[in-house]
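Section 3.1: Structural characterization of target chains.
Under the original work plan, the team committed to producing a structural model for every single-chain target entering the pipeline before any wet-lab resources were allocated. The record below documents one such target. The sequence was received from the expression subgroup and is listed exactly as submitted; it comprises 218 residues.
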Amino acid sequence: MSVSKNNNMNKDKAIAKKEELDKRIANTRDLFASKTDHSHDRSLIKEFLSLLDKKKPTKSETKRKDELMNKLGMIHGLQNGIWVANVSYEKYNSSLFKMREDVVKTYSCNTPMELMLADRIVASYWRSMRCDSMLNRLIEKEDGGYTYNDQTMRIIRELGKNLESANRLLNMNMILLKEMKQPKLDVRVKANTAFIAQNQQVNADGSYKANNETNDSK
């Protein structure tokens, strides 16, 4: 085999190797850049059900079942509220779940955005109340007395900042959720008469009428 032919073969191999690497890089980039697909939870659920149906599971199977249960719970955390329940210690889980359930029920939260806001409202409220609780115990002891030193004052200042931040977030998220659940305003303009919402009529001369009648200009 001639030297030139050998060089050409090596060059072709190098080109092919580079093209293969470029393809793998492109595929990997697409994988990380694309939206996360959670449809794989179907296979996880099937595996979980198969383990759940076992009458005498082994230790490894029981461990795997528990792992799957936690994993599936986290995947659907926005729907079941597990994320907001984990903002504090386990002993408070029931209280946080109940608060979240009440907010979701009161405002009929169904969409992901509404559920996110419900979580943020509960988390901000909980943080606010915990800061308030610690502040009150630092400011006044159970017997009505109080003792202040430099360290206590520093803690009080930091808790005050956290309380202010939590209250601000709580108010903001509550306003956002209320606005999101407000019915859309139906505005229709016909000639010299503006019809706002369903039973409100504002005429061009400034007069106002709140009934179902419509007066078109002629």
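Confidence is low (pLDDT under 50) at residues 213-218.
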